[in-house]
Structures are given as C-alpha cells and as structure tokens.
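Need residues for this backbone.
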C-alpha cells in the first residue's frame, strides 16, 4: 500500500468512517450491550480472509470480513474484468447478496454457502433462474483484519500507470497535458496533470513538483481504492485534475481540483492553488508575500501555513460581495486560506469543513488593495508580473 495524501486542514479533518460512526451510535443507543473496554476481541469467523477459486468455470478472487457492527461484508471480482462487486451477508446466515440490501430494483445475485471452513468455501451462486457452483480456497498471505485492503486481494488488479500526452497552451505558452491511466480495473478513476516543455534545470524541477501534486502520479490513488473497499466493500472513487491558471515568463500558477469518496463518512472535494518560480523551479509559498499585518505566523511551520488575522479576513470577506449569511459567518471564522497568483492580484480560498464547503470560492484581492500588506518579495513578485 502506498502512502496516502496528507489530510487537508478543515476539509479532511475530523472525518470518521461509517464503521466508526456505527460503533459510536451503537454504544449510545445500546449501552447494555457494549463490549467492556478490556474484553478480548471475538475470534474472526472462519470465512474471514482472502479467497480464490471459481464461480462455474470463471476464476474469481474474494475478500470477506466482519464489519464493525458484527455483520459480514466483502467484495469479489472476476479475474477477466478485475472490477469489484460488493458482497453483504444477510444477518448471520449463510446467504450473501451482491450490492446493497437497501437497493431497489430486481433481486440481486446471491451466494448460498454450503461448506464453510478455514481453508475452503463452497456453495451456489444464483441469479434469477441461473445457478452456478462456487469453490474457493484461502489465499496464502497475511491479510489480517483488513482482507479487502490487502495486497493478497488487490495485487492482481494493480497495473503500472500509463501516461497519455496531448499538446495544449495557456497564455501563449505551450505545455503537455497528461492523463494517467490506472488500468482496466479502474475505468472510473480520472487523474490529469500537465508538464512544461523544456529541459533546463528549472523546468525539470517544476515538472517534478507538478507531478508530485497529482494523486495518480504519486500512486496515492491506491490508498483511496483500499480505504473504500475496507469501509464499504467498493472501490474508493477519485477525480483529480491539475491545470495551469497563469503562465508568465517568471511565474507558473496552477490549481489542483480533487473530488474523492475514499470510505469516509462523506465525500471530499477541494481546490488547491500552487505557484512556481520559473527562474529557479522552486515552489513559492505566497503567504511569504504578505506581512505580519495580514498573517499571524506564531504557529506556522513548514507544514502549517500562517493564519489570516481577523482584520485582514474581514477585508477578504468584504471583497467576496453578496454571500449567504451562513457562508459569511464561516468565512469570518476560518483561519486558514490558500493563496493563488493572478495577474490582477492574489486569490484567497478558505479551507472550510465539509458542512459548509459550498462556501469555499476564490476571492480576488486586487494589487491596489494589497499594497500596504505586501512584503518586499510580494512587491517584487507583483512588479515581475508585467514581464510576459
């Protein structure tokens, strides 16, 4: 499993999985049935783990697990397609159905287990009037308590990323648009980036920085897939696109737009600006273009940007124009803002929690409004924008 992306302040903070929420809800509603904190975990059922075998004559691989409230859940795929199908146990019996029990429509295919052992599962797969025998054997490997997220289950599905390039241009500058493909198992994943054209050290450094922004290029997308499988028995979903917003002789501005549903309590979406200095290839922290009159740096670090002071925040919100009262309140309370570069000024986007994320739009602060808040680096950056 690859390293997952760092959680974003506000947008990703505090998210809880469905499993965790159900456990908490059960402890509240059924206090008499909760397990004492020091009680040992019940043994795993015989069917928990990763399995391979056939349905009829078609090779399949499956993962089965007990979820946080004691029910069975899992997933499987045909090795000819590699696309997961959710499984859900009906009560504590030997019948499992595909999909979600709450789904409407015709009855879903069902699995009826006849033999349940530590190393062998057999039974019948039924879909309407069609019945096929299934025979599964346990896959060797350590799948622990997370069989659906294990390499034993997902290994056959992983493919090296493919990269398709197409020419594009922005502000009269040509670049290459990149589309990353994860293989036949993940047709709905969408991951795009771009690269500048050139082989000088600064351009190579920028292109490395741009590629590091895209989940597909970092292969962080695997973490999203795995988290979705472990939480719900279905692949996590991810759409990410990095595109240029400004290209001048000196500066490159870009924005990463990402929407994902990786097994948390709710989907996540965010837009994050990035800026590079084309003279050096270095990523630029635009917070450094603003003085302490605008930003509070007391708790800032390499990983944590400064917070926006209340007075400067009020100026940003005033530039936002007419907004809903609840949005205005959320903007006035948000400490962390992402900053992007625009020819007309700097853009500010609040890092809001999920419940008010619809309020997170860019607010442009024109250069004249920023003049008294600019550091020497900010004034030099502003002046250099005129050089195309």
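Answer:
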């Amino acid at each position: 499993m690859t390293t997952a992306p760092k959680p974003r302040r506000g947008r990703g903070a505090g998210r809880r999985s469905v499993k965790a929420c159900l456990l908490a809800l059960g402890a509240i509603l059924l206090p008499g049935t909760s397990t004492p904190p020091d009680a040992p975990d019940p043994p795993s059922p015989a069917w928990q783990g990763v399995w391979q075998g056939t349905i009829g004559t078609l090779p399949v691989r499956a993962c089965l697990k007990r979820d946080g409230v004691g029910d069975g859940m899992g997933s499987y795929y045909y090795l000819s397609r590699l696309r997961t199908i959710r499984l859900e146990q009906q009560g504590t019996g030997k019948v499992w159905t595909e999909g979600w029990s709450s789904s409407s429509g015709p009855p879903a295919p069902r699995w009826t287990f006849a033999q349940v052992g530590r190393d062998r599962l057999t039974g019948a797969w039924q879909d309407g009037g069609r019945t096929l025998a299934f025979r599964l054997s346990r896959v060797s490997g350590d799948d622990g308590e997370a069989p659906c997220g294990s390499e034993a289950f997902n290994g056959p599905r992983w493919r090296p990323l493919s990269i398709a390039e197409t020419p594009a241009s922005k502000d009269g500058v040509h670049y290459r648009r990149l589309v990353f493909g994860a293989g036949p198992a993940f047709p709905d994943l969408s991951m795009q980036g771009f690269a500048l054209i050139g082989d000088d050290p600064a351009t190579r450094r920028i292109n490395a920085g741009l590629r590091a922004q895209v989940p597909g290029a970092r292969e962080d997308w695997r973490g999203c897939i795995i988290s979705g499988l472990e939480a719900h028995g279905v692949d996590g979903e991810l759409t990410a696109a990095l595109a240029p917003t400004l290209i001048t002789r000196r500066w490159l501005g870009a924005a990463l737009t990402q929407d994902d549903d990786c097994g948390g309590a709710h989907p996540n979406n965010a837009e994050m600006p990035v800026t590079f200095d084309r003279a050096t290839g270095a990523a630029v922290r635009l917070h450094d273009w603003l003085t302490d009159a605008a930003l509070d740096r007391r708790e800032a670090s390499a990983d944590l940007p400064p917070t926006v002071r209340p007075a400067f925040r009020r100026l940003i919100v005033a530039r936002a124009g007419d907004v809903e009262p609840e949005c205005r309140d959320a903007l006035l309370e948000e400490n962390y803002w992402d900053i992007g570069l625009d020819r007309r000024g700097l853009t500010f986007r609040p890092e809001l929690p999920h419940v008010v994320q619809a309020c997170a739009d860019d607010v442009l602060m024109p250069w004249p409004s920023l003049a008294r808040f600019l550091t020497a680096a900010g004034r030099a950056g502003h002046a250099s924008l005129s050089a195309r």
